[in-house]
Design brief:
With 160 residues, this protein is mainly alpha-helical. The strands form two sheets. It has a two-stranded antiparallel sheet. A hairpin with a 6-residue loop joins strand 3 and strand 4.
Length: 160
């Protein structure tokens, strides 16, 4: 952060105070709250494994030219020796889809091989988010297969 960034940051903080409040509250969330949230998302998962909360980093919100940017942005160095993900949307920065896009940019030679294509298809049966967004049946098919492999029971509201 540089001195000339401060006015833009303050402007965004005032304009988007609920977001700032949310991000600060997430920063100080305790382990008990984390496991309660996990159970609300995937009932029974907090007790299924011997989980341990580990600090993984801090979310970063993207502010460009004084405007708040939503989503996740992948940044890769010109020489492709390092990359990072920026964004404050909960979970997006570590979603498999975003990580896949990051790795594809960092290691293009590996991802262009036939072997990598087969493995990618095994891990990501459908890697086109547009297809999943426009084809609910395909989405449900993949979701149900993944839930079955992970041993996650669906709640009645999740069963469409």
């Amino acid at each position: 952060m540089r001195l000339h960034d401060i006015p833009g940051l303050l402007n965004v903080a005032l304009e988007h105070f609920p977001l700032v409040k949310y991000l600060v509250s997430e920063t100080f969330k305790g382990e008990k709250s984390m496991f309660e949230e996990l159970d609300s998302f995937a009932p029974g998962m907090s007790k299924k494994f011997n989980w341990k909360a580990v600090e993984a980093g801090q979310r970063v919100q993207i502010i460009r030219d004084g405007d708040l940017q939503m989503g996740t942005e992948i940044l890769v160095s010109n020489d492709k020796t390092y990359g990072t993900l920026l964004g404050a949307s909960p979970g997006a920065s570590v979603s498999p889809e975003v990580m896949l896009r990051c790795l594809e940019q960092l290691l293009p030679s590996i991802f262009n091989s036939d072997e990598a294509g087969k493995k990618k298809k095994e891990i990501f049966p459908e890697d086109n988010l547009e297809t999943l967004a426009k084809n609910p049946e395909r989405y449900r098919e993949i979701r149900d297969t993944v839930n079955e492999r992970l041993g996650i029971k669906q709640s009645a509201s999740q069963q469409d």
